[in-house]
Design goal:
eight-stranded mixed sheet, binds ligand BES, binds zinc ion, 591 residues, single chain, alpha+beta
Length: 591
């Protein structure tokens, strides 16, 4: 046995899937996908083949000649799910598995019509990263392996389906529509993605389009109108965009992340629709994954920083190219706060604050934090500053060319760095970054006059420092966010009222600002904001917002009661991942 990914039963000594043919029938009544999955192997195979499954009911497995293939299931592991062992007869080139998913598959969220904008039709979306593809398709669910895929997805007639693939036709049936997709580029299974709902699209450029429910699609088209410029800037930095189209889907508000880099179809939270294009950094991030991530990704969750750290770095290079150095510096400063919060949450000496993690027995969703993102990106900046930007950019181009469509480990990355830029890793003391907890002393610092003025003003709050109305009016959303982030977490009712009034915070469409404000208000037991807190927590499922808001509500008995009441009412509408995160936050409240 050669198991190398602690989160997959995939075995290097066995056959390797290189292509998937999927027939998926989406049934909203039973909240199940009836699936047929054909696994096509790289070479004719025989003997045992271990697949990852979780909550799947397998009804039959057959070989290419229609022959029955014997299979065996093992006891379920709470994190990995169930090992499904097929016994392949000699010379098997492909197998067909008939199965259906479970209504509580964590990789899927089934929304009732009330949870959508239009309120008329149900909605379904997937979220496979890190290890949830196995709740939708039986597969070798490790980032180490890549597959191409063809899919035929049958949905109720008024609805549409989109996937992380190119659309290749529609077949009208009796009361149904079948959407065809092809993904010719090899992807790890965590990038499989599907969404079904009442969807419309608007073209933003010849290669970019945004999808959303009809009621949101115009707003989405306006918000993301600059996408082509962003793609062109990114191409200037990282080379040609290799995925043909860059389409985006704006999901219903229960989507648990800000964005997900599903190739050819980035998934986005509707909380990005601020009405002023102020949150497009998330799009820059997901777009950047087209290079740092989808072209070269982490071999396993233990090397997640390679994926997200490089992408945060790339995102800020894109922002710098579009909005200038000052804007990028603000991004770094805002990220610094997120990093500090994650370190505080795990504890400064927690092994989860290392970049190279060891996650055997640990659910990748529980290890998730801003650390691989922000600590990882800081290591990339340190490397960049050490060799100089020109040399770094040349190295990166080389790196992406060398590892295109591969999935690599931290150790492989550093071996390549050593070969191309010898001595660099030692110069930055990379070992400390990778294998020691917390943030090393040589971490790059990001400074600007603006930054210093904003933080000094915020940190002077208790001594009576206040921005003038002209200052407030002159700040852009990132500047305001940074200011709010540096305010004390607990303010008097009078100060809360003044703050809200000065910035118009409760009326903000920018959810970064709204949630930062509500987090202060919640932690300050500020009753006039409770209605808004309840509204946001009942509507929005983005974990980045739920965690701090519910956390802040832990401050007093009254706010804890409020949190429990909101959660009891809202949790049936949350994605399973969000529900788990919030339950964990509430568990830590004092009894
Ligand atoms: N790939 C991530 C989201 C993710 C990570 C989903 C791990 C599941 C497991 C995505 O690219 C991401 O990082 N999204 C961020 C955007 C931010 C860093 C700009 C988010 O959702 O907040
Ligand atoms: Zn990312």
């Amino acid at each position: 046995m050669a198991l190398v990914d602690p989160h997959s039963y995939a075995d290097d000594a066995q056959a390797r899937t290189k292509h998937l043919r999927l027939h998926l029938a989406v049934d909203f009544a039973t909240k199940r996908i009836e699936g047929r999955a054909v696994l096509v192997f790289a070479e004719p195979a025989s003997g045992p083949l271990d697949l990852d499954t979780k909550g799947l009911t397998i009804s039959a497995v057959t070989g290419s000649a229609g022959n029955e293939v014997l299979f065996e299931t093992f006891p379920e592991d709470p994190i990995l799910g169930t090992r499904l062992r097929l016994k392949l007869p000699a010379g098997t080139t492909e197998v067909l598995l008939r199965y259906h998913t479970s209504p509580d598959a964590i990789g899927l969220q089934w929304l009732d019509p009330e949870q959508t904008e239009g309120k008329k039709h149900p909605y379904l979306f997937s979220q496979c990263q890190a290890i949830h593809a196995r709740t939708i398709v039986p597969c070798q669910d490790t980032a180490r392996f890549r597959v191409t895929y063809h899919a035929e997805v049958t949905v109720p007639a008024p609805l549409s389906a989109v996937m992380s693939a190119g659309p290749s036709g529609t077949i009208e049936g009796k009361g149904t529509r079948t959407f065809l997709f092809d993904m010719p580029q090899p992807i790890p299974t965590y990038l499989l993605a599907l969404a079904v709902g009442e969807l419309e699209s608007r073209d933003l450029s010849p290669r970019a389009r945004v999808w959303a429910e009809p009621a949101t699609v115009e707003k989405a088209a306006w918000e993301f109108a600059g996408i082509e410029e962003m793609i062109v800037k990114a191409e200037g930095l990282f080379g040609p965009y290799d995925w043909d189209r860059y389409d985006m889907l704006v999901l219903p508000p229960s989507f648990p992340y800000g964005g997900m880099e599903n190739p050819r179809m980035t998934f986005l939270t509707p909380t990005l629709l601020a009405g002023d294009r102020s949150l497009v950094d998330v799009v820059a991030h997901e777009l950047a994954h087209s290079w740092t991530g989808n072209l070269v990704t982490n071999a396993t969750a233990e090397h997640f920083w390679l994926n997200e750290g490089f992408t945060v770095w790339a995102e800020r290079r894109i922002l710098e190219a579009i909005h200038g150095e000052e804007a990028a510096t603000l991004g770094w400063a805002i990220g610094q706060k997120a990093l500090e919060e994650s370190v505080a949450r795990f504890g400064a000496d927690s092994p989860l604050t290392k970049l190279r993690t060891h996650l055997s027995g640990i659910d990748p969703d529980d290890a998730f934090s801003s650390i691989p993102y922000e600590k990882g990106a800081r290591l990339v900046v340190l490397l960049e500053r050490t060799v100089g930007r020109a040399a770094w950019d040349a190295f990166l181009a080389d790196y992406m060319k060398h590892f295109r469509f591969q999935s690599i480990t931290t150790e492989e990355f550093f071996a390549f760095l050593e070969e191309k830029l010898p001595g660099t890793a030692a110069k930055v003391n990379a070992d400390a970054w990778l294998h020691e907890a917390g943030l090393p002393a040589n971490a790059p610092v990001f400074r600007s006059e603006k930054l210093e003025a904003l933080t000094a003003l915020a940190e002077g709050w208790e001594k009576g420092a206040r921005p003038t109305n002209e200052q407030v009016a002159g700040w852009n959303p990132s500047e305001t966010l940074l200011y709010l982030q540096h305010l004390p977490r607990k303010l008097s009712a009078g100060d809360c009222a003044a703050l809200d009034a000065a910035f118009g915070l409760s009326g903000k469409g920018n959810h970064e600002l709204l949630v930062e404000w509500l987090t202060i208000a919640a932690g300050s037991d500020y009753e006039p904001a409770f209605g808004k807190v309840r509204e946001v927590l009942s509507r929005v499922g983005r974990m980045k917002y739920l965690r701090p808001l519910y956390g802040a509500l832990g401050a007093t008995e009254r706010t804890r009661a409020l949190a429990r009441e909101i959660f009891a009412a809202a949790s049936p509408t949350y994605h399973g991942l969000s529900r788990r995160v919030v339950a964990g936050v509430l568990e830590k409240y004092p009894a």
